[in-house]
Fold:
Amino acid sequence: MEPKKLGLMINPIAGMGGAVGLKGTDQMVAEARRRGAVPMANQRARTALTALLGLRDQITVYTCPGGMGGALAQEMGFSCVLLPGVESAEDTTSADTLHLARQMAEIGIDLLLFAGGDGTARDIYTAVGTGLTVLGIPAGVKIHSPVYARTPSDAGRLARRWLEGGVTAVQEAEVLDIDEDLYRREVIDTRLYGYLKIPLERGYTQNRKAGTPLSEAASIDSIAHELVGRMEPGVQYLIGAGTTTRGVMRLLGLKNTLIGVDLVLDGKLLANDLYGRQMLEAARGKKTRLIVTVTGGQGFLFGRGNQQITPEVIRELGRENILIAATREKLFQLRGQPLLVDTGDPLLDQELRGFYRVTTSYGESMICEVR
Structure:
């Protein structure tokens, strides 16, 4: 039987801005490196490809030399066809993505597996539209688009089911992206650019991100009163990103970073917009708790838009010091699906699984599963 044709494309700089508090990587690679960012996209692609190791004699990987896929696929023992035309192995551009995607469309691959963020999905849509079946490995900072699997492992498992014929139906999923310059100024402008065709199998791919409606303002205010009332003297609180947690800062009368992490102690602001290394330094040797909310429509606690809360920070704090807040409306939108974590550390993701109390209003809470 002729081998299946798997396209592999990795945006090697995707997500580098997240852990160092840059809210994205577009035009910010040099600053991300200056802050000590480490590329993670290849590692996330490796996690996905691990699920395909049992099919190595049944698939041929079509990719390009170097960091956009060839080096990883060859190292993992896959049979590869290396496509020409990509000049850079590290700091790739949109032009590289467009060129590689168009070549894959001409070849007629069975599935394009790509690692990146919303910008990468947008480039692939520009190149091929719905001419290919694709699946995203989440590696970016924002990832609003539902063309991505929930986790790298889910991407690998769904890709395997598709290549083996266990999944045959497809659906058109939205390609969404935001203006990162506006995003860094705390203006969230999400736009629909088109649709990509992905394998249809519930439970593997993420939902589109949903904003918090204005009608939930009273619920957010009620949550803030509950959390502020429970704050203990002498304990530091890291206030995570989001409109729900912003209510806490507003009630305290403190300056807030909507898409960042702030640090407060005894009702006073210690620092705004901290990222991984800074959080570690602030938390070491001091009692510190973290207040986070749920990503609307998706259900993520970690791994979508708050990568500055790194695995090292979460381990330093301990799961017992994670406080979760979400309105009932936001939880009901998930329709019974568990809360999700995608920290970039699979072992930590396993450790974070379990049941948590989620503050939903003043004096009210729900028990939710994290999986």
